């Protein structure tokens, strides 16, 4: 049975603001969890005496969960709605976090890996729900700007989490203990529980695929009448998201090693601090992107940022000394808008396939599971040159962005400014109808009509 629902444009200002704020809170939740991963990597190397390669099992579990569970989450929400999908995600999130307690109590690294996988499954649900919900919560014209704003809070949590953990939880005698890990993740589980309760008691307007499809049809857009496998902008968007996310994760994973290996007098402590500054640069870039995306077409802006990412990745790989350090900072800035813009481009005008498509695109986060090992294999020889691996991901993303620009230009003319596509489609649809009506209803000149009548009378007389 189809869920009764609405569209974002039909909500009152109060309903819209409430739904936007509540769903945006989820971005901070998974940003904090992701930010703790790198801290745990280093901590577990010390406590368990494991290698760097073994410690990356946490990343494999985390990002592998997205690859496995995101499509399932999309299908679940297609049947039961966004709100139940959020409840499912927060439940997995809390369960995975609470199982850090016995893993720490009995010092089982495998338990941490398994718990991280469960957390990843929960976060994949939340990403499918939150990214998709924010994208359709209002005019498609500002979808990319809305999603960049919400994801900006994920960026805040991504650098706040490691800074807090490194300063308070994993220093002094706690540097060789799992004791504080228990309490950190009990707090994380509690956060998930509180959010679950808030979502349960607070009304969240359900934006359904049927309502979105009807809205598209009213605007003259019927792209969702084609089968899902023909939604090429979504299929290729998944590929772009996979390569981009893999590149982003690889860039961050090797950043500390890169700073140290540039031979400009940066030690590990300073490198860690510089990495936190890179994350701040990324977050600032995301909020700058919110402003720009209100005026510049998202596909065009992604194309420009994609070229910049590719150039700065090459600069990081081959520029010596402080030049390479500067290029890495530039790379973090231009990465900022890429994930949310790819998501909005890939899921726009999907109508009845919105949740299914969202699950597919979020599945692209799984790219973070296999790009870092490929980069790491080169980094063992030369850390800087390993950034050629992320370069390939940015090139693939740029090809997708340029392809979207060309597709838009072919259908409605080149655009520099962001526009309301439904209005353009309506105008084209109206113009076509007017031309058709004009062909059918254009009045016959009086002289022609009179001549025709005389011709008929003459023929009848001859007969």
How would you concisely characterize the structure shown here?
It is a multi-pass membrane protein. This protein is mainly alpha-helical.
Write a structural description.
This protein is an all-alpha fold and 463 residues long. It folds into 2 domains: 8-207, Up-down Bundle (Growth Hormone, Chain: A), CATH 1.20.1250.20; 217-417, MFS general substrate transporter like domains (Growth Hormone, Chain: A, Up-down Bundle). Helix content is 77%, strand content 0%. It contains 20 helices and no strands. The chain has helices at residues 13-48, 52-55, 57-80, 82-98, 100-105, 109-136, 143-169, 179-201, 209-218, 232-253, 255-261, 268-293, 298-318, 321-335, 338-347, 354-363, 371-379, 388-412, 421-441, 446-462. α1 packs antiparallel against α8, α11 (255-261) packs across α12 and α12 (268-293) packs parallel to α14. It is globular. It starts with 12 loop residues before the first helix and ends with a helix. Residues 429-433, 446-452 and 454-463 have low confidence and may be disordered.
Indicate the structural class.
Answer: mainly alpha
Q: What share of the residues does DSSP label as strand, in percent?
A: under 5%
Rg over CA atoms:
27 Å
- End-to-end gap: 68 Å
What is the count of helical runs?
20
Poorly predicted ranges (pLDDT <50, ≥5 residues)? Answer: 429-433, 446-452, 454-463
- Shape call: globular
Number of strands: 0
**What's the name of the CATH homologous superfamily of the largest domain?**
MFS general substrate transporter like domains
